[in-house]
Amino acid sequence: MGTLLYYCRQTTEACKGIRYASKSHPYKYGTSGCIYTSGCGVCSSLMVLRNFGVVPATMNTKRWAAECVKMGARAAEGTNMAKIAEHFKKFYGITAKQTKSTETLKKHLRNGGRAIICVTGRGKRLFSNSGHYVYVGGIDKSGNLIILDPYWYDGKFTLTARRKAYTKVKNDREVYVQPSALAADIGSIWLFTAPKGVKPLCSVNDVNHKKPKPVAPVVSLGQHILTAVRGVYKGCGADTGRKKVSDLSEDGQKHATTAKKSAFAFLRKGTIVSLLEVKKAKSGNLWAKIPSGWICIWEKSDNTLFVK
């Protein structure tokens, strides 16, 4: 599974050609004054915008880099996040404040906020050996920060023993790390809050992520194959009571998990069944009538279909 968050990566070939020059770093393709070398602040702040959903998909890295230069956010050695915070408030209604407290950060994330951390290259050096911005897209149930690092390259988080020990990559490029492991490397934390009514994109592991309600599939009548063992019931729903093996049709008894007539009836995985009627029970599960009785063919709780 890939991340559900919008991710902006600075280490692409295209970013080598996106100008982001300063007096001390004039533009040279791929080696100076471009997003590839200096764009972590641009990429991290674009992730704030895109994951808050306040800009369209046409606001890409190149356009946002130009906006950052225009607003005066390009600093001699990187990006002036204070300038970007002012721009966010003025044009998008996003409020910002600074902190160095990881406890404040955790509370902010649990309340649905997002953040950008400026790491210094001190401490365990989990993300960089020097100054670097990373986007914090949420927090999981174990208190891990869910971080998207603009300066991604394969093997980055297995490069050192400390990175192996303190970080874990999930969903392609989400980096999970405990705040306490990162604390010594934090220079500053920018906390961003979306305008009222805005629902940010969330990682599937974020405490604020809500799974979409499962929708019962459309299952045609006729022959299907069971993909799991299924109990046979007297009617549509578990509350109608189970049938015994002796209650099954002659063919149904041949495919029961046991030959004992007095045992509760279960049909084996791989059994071919003829669906005569499909109906939704009060529980929301989908049931089907077969010659031997009724079986549950889809469970709402885990969105699992038992026929193919």
Secondary structure layout:
Blueprint: H1 13-16, H2 35-38, H3 40-52, H4 61-70, H5 81-92, E1 95-99, H6 102-110, E2 114-119, E3 132-139, E4 145-148, H7 161-166, E5 168-170, E6 174-177, H8 179-182, E7 186-193, E8 222-225, E9 230-231, H9 250-254, E10 266-267, E11 272-275, E12 277-280, E13 286-290, E14 293-299, E15 304-305
Antiparallel strand pairs: 1-7, 2-3, 2-7, 3-4, 4-6, 5-6, 8-11, 9-10, 12-13, 13-14, 14-15
Can you give the mean pLDDT?
96
What would you call the structural class? Answer: alpha+beta
What percentage of residues falls in helices of 4 or more residues?
10-25%
- Please state roughly what percent of the residues sit in beta strands, choosing from under 5%, 5-15%, 15-25%, 25-35%, 35-45% or over 45%: 15-25%
> Helix-strand pattern, N to C?
HHHHHEHEEEHEEHEEEHEEEEEE
Outline the low-pLDDT stretches. Answer: none
Largest sheet: 7 strands, antiparallel
Could you give the order of strands across the largest sheet?
1-7-2-3-4-6-5
Shape: elongated
Separation of the first and last Cα atoms: 23 Å
Give the helix tally: 9
Q: What does the model show?
A:
β14 (293-299) and β15 form a beta hairpin. The chain has nine helices and 15 strands. It is of the alpha+beta class and 308 residues long. The longest helix has 13 residues, at 40-52. The chain is elongated and about 85 Å long.
